[in-house]
Specification:
Largest sheet of chain A: 10 strands, mixed
Low-confidence stretches of chain A: none
Distance between the termini of chain A: 25 Å
Strand order of the largest sheet of chain A: 2-1-3-12-11-4-5-10-8-9
Number of strands of chain A: 12
Oligomer: homodimer
Order of helices and strands of chain A: EHEHHEHHEEEEHEHEHEHEEHHH
Bound molecules: 3-isopropylmalic acid
Mean pLDDT of chain A: 96
Chain lengths: 354, 354
């Protein structure tokens, strides 16, 4: 049996609405390309599961999904019933860390037909990757509180950067830039203000850049870099960033290209020792959940990233072409893009375009 | 002698070019309003000073400027000769901390005549404040490195939030919103990922909001909030944020309104136990320094914020009117605004408009 074994986790909110559209597209492209999938659905990593079981995941979650070829993930979080840090640290952040998915790869691309909030930008002008460190940095669980409920109350949390963790994400970014035309890496820093970890990040960037003389490497502090995303999105090719900075830049980038509703993410373990996870950049969006109006393109584009990772580049390219064709048609645009199409209308249109 | 005593520190790079324009405007408005200034110039808090003295400031810097009514500051940093964390932690960050300037107040406003990179936005659409915590949070000096130059190398840095520090910045933000029409506070958080300090921030926001029932209070995670700055800048009235998040948002906001070259900042000690410091949001900009092309409006607008703080609201309003008049005239626009005016042309135009 040559089928790709996929663990499917829809999660919460609009995750439950967009994942079925992603699966529909995967089935369609499989029949065109002669590949096949076995989908195993899991109900954990959701706030419903938490409310029933008192934990986001069963104790043996690693055994249940660790043998799959990839995880196709929707979104998690329902702050009305479970605090976000509980739901996220109990699921998505566990996957990233325990499956050592240390690369969070997020393409930012202005697509034909998608109205950009920026004036005077056209498809082709914006086309870059955010390469985000995905396991350490500002997302650490070390810290705590002392003197609660007094004037002396203090809360601390560590940022942790390791040589191994920083070097491997930088290497991934430089290798990616090496394969691209512009051969340009931009590092996000804040070494003027965050005075210990960020100068270290800069130091490792310099060391890595020395190994890639053909690559042009520059750096900006995160504040002005965010400004440049708005004012000069055409400057970027591969942007490498710490966990938190990458998180911010990979929502900001897609906002500049029209909507975070279409942005995909790959949480990748490049050594393939563990399954990688593919998900849209957007979250569970409680404000629009249950209405059938969420944009499924982020989920579908994530399916394309997954196909690439599974060694099905032709299928991935077909899905991307279908996405471009659909985005160009106003009648298939969901509300975030100024249209009136439903989640299902848009998903079916991608299938038809295939 | 009723003169306001101002400590003037031009610093590095374009700081040395824009500060004189700010002073020119202050002199002009003084003669119109019957107030007066005594300017004391200091050469420390600059990288030149560092190269001569081996420190950014003399040991008695607090005595030298601590008795002034305000500090009028340009920009500091010259990474080609002094690493940014050395120059900044040896000067600006010291001022903020030692003079307990715990509020960093940064207006974001789309001005008539300033071309915005956002499509379809006009003056009046964007008009809000970023209220940034300015003394603690992510900008702590606690941390260090272990196992240098080995595979085990680890670097850590603490984020530190105190009850007193968080509550006072929130109170400032809610009080400011109270005086505004929309009475709306937006809190920047990241409690889904930064799992210890940020849930604490949220908790204090909730406690403060309970004391201000007339104020509408919402919160967004920093990643989607950055996206909303681009897509819905009209949503915001008062945005309150930690030190790092406020730093990012207050460059991003001005980028959305056209240029960070016009954005001002007040580093304020509301209790007036110490001098407050007024500076443009932009930095020393080594890339354009020495060419006389920097936009002086950020510095001049900072002078207006300073006038307000010094109890000269009429003078402040006159300067703001003059800024608006000049920005509306294409011939006085500097290069960042697509024009060809020099720093001096633009500064003199503001004086003439007065
Ligand atoms: C220069 C730097 C340390 C500073 C900061 O991050 O606070 C600057 O970006 C600012 O916004 O005033
Ligand atoms: C939900 C949250 C913890 C997550 C993150 O911050 O990593 C999300 O914003 C993302 O970008 O995948």
């Amino acid at each position: 049996d040559n089928a790709h074994r996929i663990a499917v986790i829809a999660g919460d909110g609009i995750g439950k609405e967009v994942v079925p559209e992603g699966l529909r597209v995967l089935e369609a492209v499989a029949s065109r390309c002669g590949c096949s999938f076995r989908f195993d659905h899991f109900d954990f990593a959701s706030c419903d599961y938490y409310l029933q079981h008192g934990a986001m995941m069963p104790a043996d979650w690693k055994a249940q999904i660790g043998g799959h070829d990839a995880i196709f993930f929707g979104a998690v979080g329902w702050p009305a019933t479970v605090p976000d840090h509980v739901s996220l640290w109990g699921s998505l952040i566990q996957f990233r860390r325990e499956f050592d998915q240390y690369v969070n790869l997020r393409p930012v691309k202005l697509m034909p037909g998608v109205p950009s909030p920026l004036a005077n930008r056209k498809p082709g002008d914006i086309d870059f990757y955010v390469v985000r460190e995905n396991t350490e940095g500002e997302y650490s669980s070390i810290g705590g509180r002392i003197f609660p409920d007094t004037d002396r109350e203090v809360v601390v949390q560590e940022t942790v950067m390791t040589r191994i963790g920083v070097d491997r994400i930088l290497k991934y970014a430089f290798d990616l830039a090496q394969r691209r035309d512009r051969k340009h890496v931009t590092s996000a820093t804040k070494s003027n203000g965050i005075s210990i970890t960020m100068p270290y990040w800069d130091e490792r960037v310099e060391a890595m850049a020395a190994l890639y003389p053909e690559i042009r490497c520059d750096k900006y502090h995160i504040d002005i870099l965010a400004a440049h995303f708005v004012q000069h999105p055409d400057w970027f090719d591969v942007v490498v960033a710490s966990n938190l900075f990458g998180d911010i830049l990979s929502d900001l980038g897609p906002a500049c290209t029209g909507t975070i509703g279409i942005a995909p993410a790959g949480n990748i373990n490049p050594e393939r020792r563990f399954p990688s996870l593919f998900e849209p950049v957007h979250g569970s969006a409680p404000d629009i959940a249950g209405q059938g109006i969420a944009n499924p393109i982020g989920q579908i584009w994530s399916a394309a990233l997954m196909l690439d990772h599974l060694g099905e580049p032709r299928a991935a390219a077909l899905v991307l072409d279908a996405i471009e064709a659909v985005l160009a048609r106003p009648e298939y645009r969901t509300r975030d893009l100024g249209g009136t199409a439903s989640t299902e209308d848009c998903g079916k249109a991608v299938v038809d375009a295939l």
